[in-house]
Amino acid sequence: MDLLKLMEREEIERLRQQIKYHDELYYVHNRPEISDYEYDQLVARLKELESRNPELIVADSPTQRLGDRPTERLDKYEHRHPMLSLDNTYSYEQLREWNERCAKLAAGQPYTFVTELKIDGVSIAVIYIDGWLSRAVTRGDGTVGDVVTENVKAIETVPQRLLVMPPGVREVEVRGEIYMPNSVFARLNEEKRFANPRNTTAGTIKVLNPRLVAERGLRCFFYDLYFDGKKPFASHWQALEWLREANFAVNEHSRRCEDLAQVIQFCELWRIGRHKLDYEIDGVVIKINETLLQEDFGMTSKSPRWAIAYKYPPEQAVTRVRAITVQVGRTGALTPVARLDPVELAGTTITRASLHNKDWIERLGLKVGDWVVVEKSGEIIPQVVRVLIERRSEVASELSDFVMPASCPVCGQPVVRLPEEVVTRCVNSSCPAKLKNAILQYASRSGMQIEGLGEELVSQLIARALVKDVADLYGLTVRQLVMLDRVGRRSAEKLVEQISESKGKGLDRLLYALGIPYVGEQKARLLAEHFRSMDALMQADIAALSEVEEIGDVASRHIYEWFRNRRNVDLIERLKAAGVQMEYKVSRRGKAFADKVFVFTGRLKSMSREEAKRAVESRGGKVSSAVSKKTDYLIVGADAGTKLDEARKLLLKVLDEEDFLAMLRASEISESSEN
Ligand code: IVH
Questions:
Q1: Among the atoms of ligand 1, which is closest to the Cα of residue 117?
Q2: By C-alpha distance, which of 541, 524, 538 is closest to 569?
Q3: Band of the pLDDT at 615, cuts 50, 70, 90?
Q4: How far is the centre of ligand 1, averaged over its atoms, from the C-alpha of 125 (Å)?
Q5: Which pTM value belongs to this model?
Q6: 173 plus 282 within the same structural domain
Q7: Residue 351, domain extent
């Protein structure tokens, strides 16, 4: 390769990273650092370079994903009915006033309410034509939204196809709220790149990349329904029931209320209860249940008169930052943490708050000693959202600037911040903090599944120098373990057994467990599937790596580099010597149909009933002889019996043999050579 080409290649890579970085600031954090013009210049330059080097174009290049910014690049669609917003209230007083207005409008007709949790996500309209998901549109300005169909199709809980089309109806429109579960957010946000689940959801849904949507575990609750543009049922509650039966996720906590007292009770219940949910809510939506009355009431300029949101005041507290300390994660990322004067927030006393990274601190303008506002947002750890500048004069003499340490607070080695990254990292691979987190990752449920290897135990193992890398785990003995604090003989024996069992978990789990940069669960599986053995993977060059589905330029470079590091190669050798399997032969089939209930009717052409049953069971599913509400799939062969009618009545998922075979193939990641 000549020098010019090499330089262009590097520039392409750099531009892609820059664009991704700015996309994330723009879409996810809502805080662009460059003007649209500057952004467009970057994209234009990348396009120019790529057109000169077409062999370097990869599917995940920003030029392939998007033309311009999403608001321009996404197709527009005008909503059949405007997507309205809601009137808000923070007091029961105002809620009563709203109810009085409703009573007046109802002019003596009786009415009831439906109360629903107000999911803090992004609203979406999904349109099915002749039973097929044909379009998904964001709220946009309420009249015109962005078309994000492919992304919404990638949301697991959104049906692609309606099981039953209501007779005589061509278009079914459902509306709801897309959100990211807190647990997913916490996992995704280990490196503290995103502000909160809602913004992450909003950003994700607008990046034209269905894989990203799937990877980020978005979900959706539905609460609105139209058949050919009209509300089809006499009550909102019936609409929810239809949605539920048609396999749409409807929030299970929605209730019917007879009067305002019950409504208020519901609001009070969730004021505290909401902290136990795995998603964020910012209030309760109260709707008049009767469709005819809804139509009578009509709307104001932007919100319906028949619904209102009772909002909980944000969970915020005011306290002082006494110090800023720095934590080190598995990847070596240094995360600044504010140490606070203890303060009550959302039912717990907090003393720490996340500050994400140095940029975040700078944006806040935070100094040690400041009075600040802290807020909970989808994470267990609250974050500092604002500095109370107006209280600076009280504390002026005690203020000091935060300085990111030049060396790792745990191991003392110098830290590095790469130009394109927001995080500062400790790059010492034997840093105890990294080691601890590396062991936890190795033992994790998605990794080698070593139960009983918790944080406290790992700390002890490291402190006593029993474990210097993950390979040392395989040398641990019951005798060594019982010497540790709070470890009994039985649990020591169990742990040794668990560790030994982990040797056979297979290449895909191992790759994830090793914590190779950019290799999450999904990529680990794809790599394992592609290369089949550790040796083959280790020999792969960057080009060979980037041939793997979903492994882009950046990832392949990092993976390649990881295997060029002597320490990592040594570690793999030691794991091999300990007996850890390095081949891809573990079948993940056990999981694919976990807990799904199948019923068969009619004759299958390609296999016997018995074979079909085994195929389902070997993937973790169950086969039942009768159709019921618990049935997940009815598989229909030739000459189907009455089960089909029953299933139709219950609006169950009905698949033909072809569909079933496709499901089997999709779940067959590999055949275990041992069974
Ligand atoms: S009903 C005309 N129900 O809140 C009715 N909205 O502040 C409009 N939201 O744009 C919406 N959970 O994105 C409704 N259970 C729920 C909701 C909900 C969240 C969102 C929705 C809406 C916004 C209004």
A1: 15
A2: 538
A3: confident
A4: 12
A5: 0.54
A6: yes
A7: 322-398
